[in-house]
Automatic annotation (TrEMBL):
<dbReference type="InterPro" id="IPR039315">
    <property type="entry name" value="CheW"/>
</dbReference>
<dbReference type="InterPro" id="IPR036061">
    <property type="entry name" value="CheW-like_dom_sf"/>
</dbReference>
<dbReference type="GO" id="GO:0005829">
    <property type="term" value="C:cytosol"/>
</dbReference>
<feature type="domain" description="CheW-like">
    <location>
        <begin position="2"/>
        <end position="142"/>
    </location>
</feature>
<dbReference type="GO" id="GO:0007165">
    <property type="term" value="P:signal transduction"/>
</dbReference>
<dbReference type="Pfam" id="PF01584">
    <property type="entry name" value="CheW"/>
</dbReference>
<dbReference type="InterPro" id="IPR002545">
    <property type="entry name" value="CheW-lke_dom"/>
</dbReference>
<dbReference type="GO" id="GO:0006935">
    <property type="term" value="P:chemotaxis"/>
</dbReference>
<protein>
    <submittedName>
        <fullName>CheW domain protein</fullName>
    </submittedName>
</protein>
Length: 142
C-alpha cells in the first residue's frame, strides 16, 4: 500500500486504516443503545441528522478494550457501506502517517485465525508494527 493511514490503539495493538475511509473522529459521543441488538453493535449516534451505527471493533477482532475508555473516542467512516455511515470505538488516537510499499509486509501465516483474516498487511514504522485493518472485510463479515 502507498498513501496515508490513520493509526490508533485498539486493545493494546497499534492499528491502522486507509485514511480514505475516515470521515471524522469524535470524542465523548452520546449514543442510544439498541435493545436486543447484536453484542458487537454498541448503539446509534445522531451525527448532524445522519444516523451512524457504532460498533465495538475490539470485540469483533477479539481484542481486549479498556471499558473506561470505550465511550470517549470513535472513528466515523464514510458512507461506503451501502451508503450508511458507521463508526467504531478506539482506545487512543495515534497519528496520520505516509507509508510506502517497502514498509509493508503480508501478515504471517500463523495469524490467519478469525481476527487475522481482517489484517491486510503489517506496516513497519519507527520500530513499531501497525496492523492494517481491512475495513471492507470486517464490515462485510458482520
Amino acid at each position: 500500500m502507498t498513501g496515508k493511514i490513520l493509526t490508533f490503539y485498539l486493545g493494546g495493538s497499534l492499528c491502522g486504516i486507509d485514511i480514505v475511509f475516515a470521515k471524522e473522529i469524535n470524542r465523548n459521543v452520546k449514543y442510544t443503545t439498541v435493545p436486543g441488538g447484536a453484542s458487537h453493535v454498541v448503539g446509534l449516534l445522531n451525527l448532524r441528522g445522519q444516523v451512524v451505527t457504532l460498533f465495538d471493533l475490539a470485540q469483533i477482532l477479539h481484542l481486549n478494550q479498556k471499558q473506561e475508555d470505550k465511550q470517549t473516542k470513535c472513528i466515523i467512516l464514510k458512507g461506503l457501506f451501502q451508503g450508511d455511515h458507521i463508526g467504531f470505538f478506539i482506545d487512543k488516537l495515534a497519528e496520520v502517517i505516509d507509508i510506502t510499499p517497502d514498509m509493508c509486509e503480508l501478515p504471517p501465516a500463523n495469524i490467519k485465525n478469525l481476527q487475522g483474516r481482517f489484517i491486510s498487511e503489517i506496516v513497519k514504522y519507527n520500530k513499531e508494527m501497525i496492523l492494517m485493518l481491512d475495513i471492507n472485510k470486517i464490515f462485510d463479515a458482520i
